[in-house]
Amino acid sequence: MKFTITRATFIKSLNDVSRAISTKTTIPILTNLKLDLTDTALILTGSDADISIESKIDATSETNDLQVQSTGSITLPARFFSEIVKRMPEKTMTVDVQDNFQTVITSGQSEFKINGLDANNYPRLPEIAAENPLTVPADVLRQLIAQTVIAVSTQETRPILTGVHIQIQNGQLIAVATDSHRLAQRVLELPAAAGADYDVIIPGKSLIELGRTLTDEIETVEIRFADNQVLFIAGNTLFYSRLLEGNYPDTSRLIPTSSTTTIEFDAPTLLSAIGRASLLSHESANNVVRLNLNADQQTATIYGNSPDVGNVEEALQFTNLTGDNLEISFNPDYMKDALQGVGQTTIELAFTAPLRPFTLVPSEDKTHFIQLITPVRTFS
């Protein structure tokens, strides 16, 4: 096996597949990068058994400058090989696999020799048929991931909550995540998938890595489901993830259908104010800020406090405060994550009681993206 390639092209694919390679694995060969070379393409594969990423470099593309001298397969120590490739002196490099899987990497006057392993011992990726595949715009999928993974749990005590619950039915995709303290739900309209019916849980870690591979050059992503796997096809990259087993809790009943107090804010303005209030709350043991809404006097005030440092009070700019007067406390980091998810828009906060979860939705679209935050009980 021998080939020459432009390093920049190779490094781009290498960076993608490296997201799936872990130094901590019970299968030693998975610390390696797999290379498959045919007459038409070079395929790089990385896996940690939970996530597998495959990236193809087309030999017919002039920009790749992939020159195939002899075909074959090899797995190479991912960490060392990556460092070698990134430090090579010239724009191109040559990889030559010799006897006993010894691999020679040359670029200019630099030459490295590293030991590889037989690619036949590398676990095979599943073949997922294209039965009822879904196609989603890449930018929309990237946004959906960013808006939901913020609410997945990082605690392994309830493994099911470390994933995002995806339901596809009646031409809609509903993605929900919750860590029991907050919830994020995003709905996509998929008219072309009217006949599709899926109910799966995708690990949040997998979706975070997928989001990082969805660059601006990728326009659409094809999604395929199997019994315990999901496959995302984005350009020349195939992203596999295992699915979590179990039943996700029914989150629909958690979202309030009515409210007693509502208020609208400009999201970036509120985000800045909460950032200021949290400067002091982060120095406190409970990390809580307090919001006081007075509909009678049409005022909204946020408070942050640290017994050791001091306190902050700020009158907030808002529009359209209606309903009952209310004072509520919450974790400011949850609110900052939620506001970053909606971006540059106006948002509506809807409350039912000081100790009941409240919702946050974009004012112009209150059905396709909703976030819920549980308040914090404080004793003053």
TrEMBL record:
Pfam families: DNA_pol3_beta (PF00712), DNA_pol3_beta_2 (PF02767), DNA_pol3_beta_3 (PF02768)
Places the protein is found: Cytoplasm
Ranges for domain DNA polymerase III beta sliding clamp N-terminal: 1-126
SMART domains with a match to the protein in the record: POL3Bc
GO molecular function terms listed in the Swiss-Prot or TrEMBL record: DNA-directed DNA polymerase activity
First and last residue of the signal peptide: none
Occurrences of domain DNA polymerase III beta sliding clamp C-terminal (ranges): 253-376
Domain DNA polymerase III beta sliding clamp central: 136-250
InterPro entries in the record: DNA_clamp_sf, DNA_polIII_beta, DNA_polIII_beta_C, DNA_polIII_beta_cen, DNA_polIII_beta_N
Keywords assigned: Cytoplasm, DNA replication, DNA-binding, DNA-directed DNA polymerase, Nucleotidyltransferase, Transferase
Subunit text: Forms a ring-shaped head-to-tail homodimer around DNA.
Similarity comment text for this entry: Belongs to the beta sliding clamp family.
Task performed by this protein: Confers DNA tethering and processivity to DNA polymerases and other proteins. Acts as a clamp, forming a ring around DNA (a reaction catalyzed by the clamp-loading complex) which diffuses in an ATP-independent manner freely and bidirectionally along dsDNA. Initially characterized for its ability to contact the catalytic subunit of DNA polymerase III (Pol III), a complex, multichain enzyme responsible for most of the replicative synthesis in bacteria; Pol III exhibits 3'-5' exonuclease proofreading activity.
Protein name (record): Beta sliding clamp
Native organism: Lacticaseibacillus suilingensis
Gene: dnaN
